[in-house]
Fold:
Amino acid sequence: MTLLKKLIATLLLVPGLVLAAESTFPLDQAPDHTKDLAALQNGARLFVNYCLNCHSASSMRYNKLKDIGLTEEQIKDNLLFTSDKVGDMMTVSMAPKDAKVWFGATPPDLSVIARAKASGEGSGPDWLYTYLRTFYKDDTRPTGWNNLVFPNVGMPHVLWELQGVRAAKFEDVKDPHDHTKVVHKFAGFEQVTPGKMTALEYDKSVADLVSFMTWMAEPAQTTRKRLGVWVLLFLGVFMVITWRLNASYWKNVK
Amino acid sequence: MSNEKQVDSGRRGLLVATCAAGSVAGLATTGVLVSTFQPSERAKAAGAPVEVDISSLTPGELRTVEWRGKPVWIMKRTPEQVESLKKVDAQVADPESKRTQFSTTPEYAMNEWRSRQKDILVVVGICPHLGCSPTSKFQTGAQPSLPDDWQGGFLCPCHGSTFDLAGRVYKNKPSPDNLQVPPYMFEGDAKLVIGKDEKGEA
Amino acid sequence: MAFHEKQLPADAPIADKALNWVDARFPLSATWKAHLSEYYAPKNFNFLYVFGSLALLVLVIQIVTGIFLVMHYKPDANVAFASVEYIMRDVPWGWLVRYMHSTGASAFFVVVYIHMLRGLLYGSYRKPRELVWLFGVGIFLCLMAEAFFGYLLPWGQMSFWGAQVIVNLFGAIPFIGPDLSLWIRGDYVVSDATLNRFFAFHVIAIPLVLIGLVVAHIVALHEVGSSNPDGVEIKEKLDDKGVPLDGIPFHPYYSVHDIFVVTIFLTIFTAVVFFAPEMGGYFLEYNNFVPADPLKTPPHIAPVWYFTPFYSILRATTSEFMVWLAVGVAAYVALIILKTRLASKFKIASAVIGLALIAGMFLFDAKFWGVVLMGVSVMIMFGLPWLDTSPVKSIRYRPSWHKIVYIVFGVTFLVLGYLGVKPPTAIGTAIAQICTFIYFGFFLLMPWWSAMGTFKPVPDRVVFHPH
Structure:
């Protein structure tokens, strides 16, 4: 038995040994506004105004926005940018080939981006939330912008007017894995020019935008969770009935 | 079965309850699966109302637009063509569009022009007989397959049904009904929306 | 034999008459009796015995949801990914059908692994049930193929690259490898051609084979009768009517019992479907929400969780490992020669095969042997009825230390699975290599260890505690 215990103990240690540290920028937790219709509508507005110029959301139908409390009229008047029919998909204005030439990579479709960016480091919304708040001025890049979560990204800081221009400070520290090497470690932002929003307002706007993208990645999620409660309640009742039915037969088996 | 001769009442109750709950589960599942057959959002969007700008429509011109995969004719009738409709009242099978077997004519088309505005005709360009699309025959007078006092209208090439300039089928023709008037409405003078009327979207 | 239809009295109920008409022409009542109301199953089944029925339920769920998905899915590389999102958003209730299918796929493997574990613990594969087991391993192979082909269909990054990697594995086979991969793919790289044929396999070819094998599996079982946790053959003690003393009719006892367990299963299943369909990226992988891009390899390609134990064995087979494997083969041949009482022709044959294998291990590269080892790790299950030489079937009557062997095997399997999910590391590979030896040792050394120790007396009647 002691051998078995040793074996089990060793095997339990395996996870710790196997997990190699991957150095990516730590992600902040995205505030969840997916149950707040006003926040989602604000997010939709930001999305259509800032993202759809380069990105498509080609699985997302404009009239699906009715699910977050907008009327067809409101959609047509304020949000219908890349099409004239409210039943159409959110396709992109820019041709993908042009985008590739201008930015180095085709801007990905954003329909399910909030599901695609999840990883061991954090959820998809966490990634998006941190990404949109860690752009910094970098004159060595073609767009003039760089990003802490996605180094050397081809995307410029489209929301710069809202956040303002920030520079990132780096300091050289010894590499913890190899003392002969030196790493640039991020040491904080510095506001160069102010934006239209305060930091708090900007964070809230980004949270709204990210919550919108989270909702857009799976519009059925609200129904799914709501319905799930009822289905489980029903199954609970069904379980009790069949349990007693089973017992009523098996009491005869000696 | 088991050693018992009779199912005791407790067990019977549970059997009933199990069957009832099971049927609820079964029906719900079947309902979900069968609902997937319903037109999807894509089908509904493709079948959405169509807006047409008719400001450039000239008198006597017929324009065809597609709505739900069907050709819809929008024709600006001349005053003479509108006048001629009375002359064929006796020759058409259902002059007042009372038939409802094939399609019901909307109330705004229950008039002598079968349209909201007497000069603009809006009908589905499909013969109610077997689905061919009739050809325009606006020239008056005798012509092959047409009566000598032809006032203008449409002739279906497949089996010879003839329709007047309000889409009404002539007597003794294969088509069982007049040309269908789809739901439509005007939004302003120059815009026609096909597929939508006061009752909402079709 | 002349046709004979039983005559019922004229005032018999119409239902009885109808049934009588059918029974004279089709074994309807006979089948009902043989397989349900007069199929006598042991009364001492425990919880592990319900997973066969659950597997059948999941098969039905997959087929039904699959049919409805195929009505909207498009097997064209340009639109496949978008068609899945179409199902999720535009088809009424499409999201629910999709989640049921994706959860069902993982549920199938959970259920089947536990079902196989039951077989392992209670010796369900022993004579006279070897054929039941063989059909079962066949079902397992088909299930893995079905899951593999199905996974390409959403055409995400993991779909594409997973298929690319696995098909390229066939390229490791000497001489015919690259041509074989080309033939499987139908193209130089996984493409629309591959997608269409995988679609055909997933939707109709393998399901037909699966259904056939499942029917054969159940028929073979019913032919000899079910085993039980005590490994006692209930047909050896019959009453005066020929009914096993320890048997109870499957219907109503086990039908009612299985319905109860089904409600428990459905509760767990729907909890996942409605509240955690992605299951932390294990049931619906995150990277699969990115459309397939042949030009961009994801940093981390791993198969879906249910393949990882076998994938680990593949990855563990490095060129350094080949030396250990060669030593292992030599040791095994020595064991056969010295510690068995087989005829000398078998001993010579094993020596020759062993030598050929060792030569091959240095002639062909480790990549090929990794594929071989991975394949053998599944195929070896076919041999179980003949590897097990224990005088008793069930773990209950085996020496207590046998339980440790099974626990070690189980833990090894889980560790291999866990390692397969993670990116490879030096320590991880070393542990996977040790586990590979344990895994194969469990099977290959079974002829010896399964007969070792002091066995407990097997009762002649089942051990049953009334509910």
Observations:
- Residues 112 and 140 of chain C are 8 Å apart (CA to CA).
- The radius of gyration of chain C is 25 Å.
- Chain C has a mean pLDDT of 95.
